[in-house]
Amino acid sequence: MDLVPLKLVTIVAESLLEKKLVEEIQRLGAKGYTIVPARGEGSRGMRSVDWEGQNIRLETIVPEEVALRILARLQEAYFPHYAVIAYVENVWVVRGEKYV
Amino acid sequence: MDLVPLKLVTIVAESLLEKKLVEEIQRLGAKGYTIVPARGEGSRGMRSVDWEGQNIRLETIVPEEVALRILARLQEAYFPHYAVIAYVENVWVVRGEKYV
Amino acid sequence: MDLVPLKLVTIVAESLLEKKLVEEIQRLGAKGYTIVPARGEGSRGMRSVDWEGQNIRLETIVPEEVALRILARLQEAYFPHYAVIAYVENVWVVRGEKYV
Amino acid sequence: MDALELLRLNLLSPMVLAFALGVAARLLKSDLAFPEALYTALSIYLLFAIGFKGGVELSKTPVVLLLLPALATLFLGLLRPLSGYLLARRFLGVGRADAGALAAHYGSVSAVTFLAALTFAQGVGHRPEGFLPTLVALLEVPGIVLALFLAKRGGGNLGEAFREVLTGKSVVLLLGGLLIGALSGEAGMERVKPFFVDPFYGALTLFLLDLGMVAASRFAALKQVGFRLVLYGTLLPLLHGALGVWVGHLAGLSLGGATVLGAMSASASYIAAPAAVRIALPEANPSLYLTASLAVTFPFNLVLGIPVYHAIAKWIGG
Amino acid sequence: MDALELLRLNLLSPMVLAFALGVAARLLKSDLAFPEALYTALSIYLLFAIGFKGGVELSKTPVVLLLLPALATLFLGLLRPLSGYLLARRFLGVGRADAGALAAHYGSVSAVTFLAALTFAQGVGHRPEGFLPTLVALLEVPGIVLALFLAKRGGGNLGEAFREVLTGKSVVLLLGGLLIGALSGEAGMERVKPFFVDPFYGALTLFLLDLGMVAASRFAALKQVGFRLVLYGTLLPLLHGALGVWVGHLAGLSLGGATVLGAMSASASYIAAPAAVRIALPEANPSLYLTASLAVTFPFNLVLGIPVYHAIAKWIGG
Amino acid sequence: MDALELLRLNLLSPMVLAFALGVAARLLKSDLAFPEALYTALSIYLLFAIGFKGGVELSKTPVVLLLLPALATLFLGLLRPLSGYLLARRFLGVGRADAGALAAHYGSVSAVTFLAALTFAQGVGHRPEGFLPTLVALLEVPGIVLALFLAKRGGGNLGEAFREVLTGKSVVLLLGGLLIGALSGEAGMERVKPFFVDPFYGALTLFLLDLGMVAASRFAALKQVGFRLVLYGTLLPLLHGALGVWVGHLAGLSLGGATVLGAMSASASYIAAPAAVRIALPEANPSLYLTASLAVTFPFNLVLGIPVYHAIAKWIGG
Ligand SMILES: Nc1ncnc2c1ncn2[C@@H]1O[C@H](COP(=O)(O)O)[C@@H](O)[C@H]1O
Ligand SMILES: Nc1ncnc2c1ncn2[C@@H]1O[C@H](COP(=O)(O)O)[C@@H](O)[C@H]1O
Ligand SMILES: Nc1ncnc2c1ncn2[C@@H]1O[C@H](COP(=O)(O)O)[C@@H](O)[C@H]1O
Ligand code: NA
Ligand code: NA
Ligand code: NA
């Protein structure tokens, strides 16, 4: 079996941003994504009360250059004003062509 | 502290498959798993409407050979017909014997 | 863009422990965390029935030494009596200073 | 009341309007959304309550009265998947798996369509038979099983699908509620009436609001699947509806009862069938069967079909 | 009844007490928590039910009777964001974005405060006009839009925020319910009354229990944002409340109706406004506006404000 | 009515049947499942409603009438963990931690068993005292604390466990509801009766359906833990039940009231106790205490125990 190395980008963000973030990553080249509702705490305080909305945890498997583009876009337009973090990992998948 | 390297296999699949997938991975050697409800989008379209059911995100920590067996089984019996993806990562755990 | 390597510690534990675990990791140096409700099965049996409570999946991005401290603390005080597992991964983030 | 007046009455019921509101909300891209738990809670409540009410009625009905209608229902349960399958193969030109999937949906029944028809019939002033929910439970299972059988002839794990359908939550809740109602009777009913009976139509209204959103999110798929599917999803209900009314009439149902049986027969499942089909026929295209049953047939029955079946029932019975 | 007696009556209503219980639970660090789905389900139910009841009343009201009150409401919807903005700039000394965010909250309306006022007025023996929910829907939108406009003069994507507000779930449910109520009228009401009307105040009580917990979890933020915000969050409602009563009186509302319009005018939004502001003014500080509207103004109105607006209404109208 | 007739009456109530349906659904491997949010919502509703109704009754009860029954309840709350602990040590032969865990469960109380007993007593035609829910709140806490104390003698963080129990959601909802009911009295009750009183038994029926599924999923564990646990989980309730009836009789409760107190005394907690025990005695085996209280004692009381305690009450009181 051929395992193809790719990047997994995980974004944790306030849930209001869901629609926007999905549009951004698709525009930047992501072919799919998976979202899980989450709660959490960081420099902008606790995010678990209904009123402010919870967080989402969005992950997308992409080639390295798409991963970098996504991070750059987040840094430019989201990190300053919104409760968002993002990180990248190495993953291996079977059907590599599915993600590019 | 002794950190033991293992593989983390993550499967995102339509939720109808939960029972089947759990049986498969246990049969192939997984000693445990963690499931989180998810939604998402990929080549088979958006999966967030109640009716088609949502996705699940299943992860299991296993030795490398079990990871490969799981991927092979998915490729054979699930990738063609179902909305499923899977990826592998390197992780380190404390109690290595718990997972083999 | 500068990608800074850090550690991602993921803890899967019975949900009753949430408050305690959050206090522990913050005391040990974590600057933030993300929690997702989960269910699962391991050596202590199925955890999905309401009564025993479900699991949580807690992840926190931290420097390596904090990761090791967290694992050590878990091994000392939680692994023996509670349904808990933990694993560590390598991740890369943009704003490295945010996590130390 | 003439036909137009009846159509107006149906269109202006809170339930049909709530469905329309759900459609509108989705088309306007509103952020309105029901949590999955609310949708599931409402469906558990509705199915159990239908069963329970039916069971209490059943406890007051002599079994013999039930015999003919039950036979009629079984007949419908066996015939409808056949017509659904054939029409799908010939008219839509799809393969075995897709035809079987469609047949499973149009061979089973939609509990919400049943309820809408019941409300309509009662609103018009009829008193449909109390044991009709029993028939819903009867109609739900055989059609799916037969359809899967048609699709798989020879291969596959039909057994698993059969178990899946029989122990599926809609059957368990309907039949379980029925049994509980039949066993606890009027004495039990008295205790739980303010929960399972009085607020029922309000809860159904809320459920239809959600259903409207779900259906609308399938409208986009209509273009892909094409115009023939729309025809399939309206002609088949008309055929099955007329058949249901007629068979119901033969079995001795009242005018209201025949109307409701017609609507049941015309309806397509979207709870039990999709789950069973996805397991047993994974190669069938969900876009096809979900779009047909949810985005075409369900609204068609809700808005136009039910008054039509009523008109047919009047014409046959009067 | 004298003023003190009325205050007591208000304080000892199950709703206000449930709010207090929620606050206490949070302060005692209880593990009591409402699942998110329950909170969402309750808010969907309450908003739709308010709209629906209002719609049914509307179907019985000649349009002319509605004209003046609607104009009065629009006037309030345009004036209140201005006063909210100015007071925030001058008295709190915050920047444009924060002032705009506060103005959006105090320019919109809180449906729960409306309900509490309605209950109070009915409890005292008044019969507030049936079309008041229509006014809630009217008051919800313009204030937010104007406030965002104030904050952004020149730049930014106001359009998106405007769409967001208009298709936001609270507006869709309120207006949608209103429409459904108006179209289905008394006949529809009869069917769904045991769900949307009778249990309404009990569901509201449960909702307020949750709201109490949410408000209390913001109390800690009060220290950070400072004492001036507390003043802002109590003086502005008093001002807006008196204005609302007076304008309502001029528009011909009954004593009960003027009281309720006063409370609406005094209230600050915490469903529609936060979502719109977060999108359109991300640089505004949520701690400021959420704390003011949820932890200061809402409890203030619930406990003290409503009886005060009633006293004003009596004084003006009597 | 003779004993058999009463047993039949109990077995055929919708609540007991719903529990059985839940068990059956799990044994049949049905995919029926309640979303966690629904289960939590129902338990919040039930606990608050019990408290509230009790509070309203309390507002009409002279305090002196409450004194003796409250003392009796406290007595039960202190004695039962002792018997639970001793029997676990001697008869089951388990260690301190496990014995303490079991004692905490059988020293506390199950609100649902209380409700089932109340329904039964009312169904038979008795009028149990209105203040009984106050006693439920009283019985819930002391047993758990004493049991943990027994298990930990000397070490451990009892304080934390104590806080945990006192601010646990079941105590907060019960006592909070009680307080709100007592303060708002009949006037408050009138407003919220169609939500908290009328639909109560229906909601309880749904809850029992879920409880049946949970209990059944523990049946498999029965084999592991062995036959002695089944004996423990039936003999202890019989002992505690008889004791409760007797003490209730001495304290002047009516026949219905003594029956209900007996059932309360016979019941084992499965909401407050498990949470407290897991924190304070993590080394205790959950399989043991959850299986005993949920899969043995609860069904036993529901089906057989309650009629038996009623018979005892008749025999003592008659
Ligand atoms: N160190 C961290 N590890 C894991 N998740 C984090 C961390 N810091 C922040 N988060 C998540 O990111 C969200 C936004 O972070 P912040 O902008 O720092 O408030 C938080 O609510 C957490 O869910
Ligand atoms: N590139 C991707 N990154 C993350 N998740 C994905 C990706 N592609 C697909 N998925 C997830 O896998 C599910 C099935 O994928 P598919 O079979 O491509 O429709 C989707 O609903 C997503 O939740
Ligand atoms: N091998 C594994 N892979 C992923 N998750 C696991 C694994 N083993 C255990 N878990 C999770 O950790 C929880 C506690 O594990 P245990 O203490 O082994 O019962 C389980 O309920 C699972 O959610
Ligand atoms: Na980052
Ligand atoms: Na793959
Ligand atoms: Na580990």
UniProtKB/TrEMBL annotation, chains A, B, C:
<dbReference type="GO" id="GO:0006808">
    <property type="term" value="P:regulation of nitrogen utilization"/>
</dbReference>
<dbReference type="Pfam" id="PF00543">
    <property type="entry name" value="P-II"/>
</dbReference>
<dbReference type="InterPro" id="IPR015867">
    <property type="entry name" value="N-reg_PII/ATP_PRibTrfase_C"/>
</dbReference>
<dbReference type="InterPro" id="IPR002187">
    <property type="entry name" value="N-reg_PII"/>
</dbReference>
<protein>
    <submittedName>
        <fullName>Transcriptional regulator</fullName>
    </submittedName>
</protein>
<dbReference type="InterPro" id="IPR011322">
    <property type="entry name" value="N-reg_PII-like_a/b"/>
</dbReference>
<dbReference type="GO" id="GO:0030234">
    <property type="term" value="F:enzyme regulator activity"/>
</dbReference>
UniProtKB/TrEMBL annotation, chains D, E, F:
<feature type="transmembrane region" description="Helical">
    <location>
        <begin position="6"/>
        <end position="25"/>
    </location>
</feature>
<dbReference type="InterPro" id="IPR010293">
    <property type="entry name" value="Sbt_1"/>
</dbReference>
<feature type="transmembrane region" description="Helical">
    <location>
        <begin position="171"/>
        <end position="188"/>
    </location>
</feature>
<keyword id="KW-1133">Transmembrane helix</keyword>
<protein>
    <submittedName>
        <fullName>Sodium-dependent bicarbonate transport family permease</fullName>
    </submittedName>
</protein>
<feature type="transmembrane region" description="Helical">
    <location>
        <begin position="260"/>
        <end position="281"/>
    </location>
</feature>
<dbReference type="Pfam" id="PF05982">
    <property type="entry name" value="Sbt_1"/>
</dbReference>
<feature type="transmembrane region" description="Helical">
    <location>
        <begin position="130"/>
        <end position="151"/>
    </location>
</feature>
<feature type="transmembrane region" description="Helical">
    <location>
        <begin position="37"/>
        <end position="56"/>
    </location>
</feature>
<feature type="transmembrane region" description="Helical">
    <location>
        <begin position="62"/>
        <end position="82"/>
    </location>
</feature>
<feature type="transmembrane region" description="Helical">
    <location>
        <begin position="200"/>
        <end position="222"/>
    </location>
</feature>
<feature type="transmembrane region" description="Helical">
    <location>
        <begin position="103"/>
        <end position="124"/>
    </location>
</feature>
<feature type="transmembrane region" description="Helical">
    <location>
        <begin position="288"/>
        <end position="312"/>
    </location>
</feature>
<feature type="transmembrane region" description="Helical">
    <location>
        <begin position="229"/>
        <end position="248"/>
    </location>
</feature>
<keyword id="KW-0812">Transmembrane</keyword>
<keyword id="KW-0472">Membrane</keyword>
